[in-house]
Write a structure and sequence with these properties.
Layout lengths: L8 E5 L2 E5 L2 H11 L7 H5 L2 H20 L3 H24 L5 H15 L20 H18 L15 H13 L9 H20 L2 H21 L4 H22 L9 H13 L1
Helix pairs in contact: 1-4, 3-4, 7-9, 8-9, 10-11
Length: about 280
């Protein structure tokens, strides 16, 4: 059976015909949604900035599904995230800036360029025996290539292209990792641990001073030092904090559901007792 490019395929499943759509169908759908005359009024009004918050939300929902091992919904969440790329690509096409095909082509070219140990001739179909290549060698080469790309783009300084709108914990880890790539790093994990102790003392000192602005700065330094411990141990600080948040939610929910009275009428002693019970559970 031959199919024209972009045609959807129909499957017969459980007595029903189920349409199987392609990426071309998705691109067509997006163009229809943005059609000035027959499209969706909401989609027509959107621009890059207005859908950016949704992009972040969809990315977090993908991560949430992975962390919950909710693979039933992971496919759906990945589709929602892909739709964000399709939406931006449609905006780019309308403004004659770029199209989805260009996004894909540039991505493939970049990945080929960054994986010379897989594509030795710099072409998609070139191959090499890679069984004895060490992951550490791959990582070092990857960072060197990325640094060269940053220089070619005119980035001023090693930290210049670290996105400002990353979550602060993630950006701190990225800044530290980038600096460590040229040797600006602690000798071992006990360096940042000592720094945490030092910053905690400075936080305590500012608590007594009453200077809120100075306290804010010292708290930032403390958090930055904690991130350094996580980064040194190859732990994602965002993920570590998400786990802590989830753990707090579960334990606090236990208190809510096991308290004999409303929480406003429950003593702190009783809440602490239930908290310890929650930890055991």
């Amino acid at each position: 059976m031959s199919l024209r490019r972009g045609a959807n395929i129909n499957f017969f499943c459980a007595g029903k015909t189920v349409a199987h759509y392609t990426i071309d169908d998705l691109l067509y759908l997006m163009a229809r949604l943005r059609d000035p005359q027959s499209g969706c009024p909401w989609d027509i009004k959107q621009d890059y900035a207005s859908i950016a918050p949704s992009t972040l939300e969809e990315a977090y929902e993908v991560v949430d599904a992975i962390e919950k091992q909710d693979f039933v919904h992971l496919k759906e969440e990945l589709g929602d995230l892909l739709f964000q790329v399709i939406f931006y690509s449609q905006l780019g096409k309308e403004e004659e800036r770029f199209e989805f095909a260009g996004v894909v082509s540039d991505l493939v070219a970049k990945l080929i360029r960054r994986h010379p140990h897989v594509f030795p001739d710099g072409t998609l179909h070139s191959r090499i025996d890679n069984r004895h290549t060490l992951p550490t060698d791959v990582k070092a080469r990857w960072e060197a290539i990325k640094q060269q790309e940053r220089a070619e783009k005119g980035a001023r300084g090693l930290l210049a292209d670290v996105p400002l709108n990353l979550p602060s914990l993630s950006r701190a880890a990225k800044l530290q990792k980038r600096a460590a790539s040229v040797g600006f790093d602690w000798e071992d994990v006990y360096g940042p641990i000592a720094k945490v102790r030092e910053e905690l003392l400075e936080v305590e000192a500012e608590l007594d001073s009453g200077d809120t602005k100075a306290l804010e700065e010292e708290l930032g330094d403390l958090l930055f030092a904690v991130v350094n411990i996580a980064r040194y141990q190859k732990i994602d600080p965002e993920q570590a904090l998400r786990i802590a948040n989830q753990k707090f939610e579960q334990r606090f929910h236990y208190i809510e559901t096991h308290a004999e009275r409303s929480l406003s009428e429950t003593s702190i002693t009783e809440m602490n007792r239930l908290w310890e019970q929650a930890k055991q559970h």
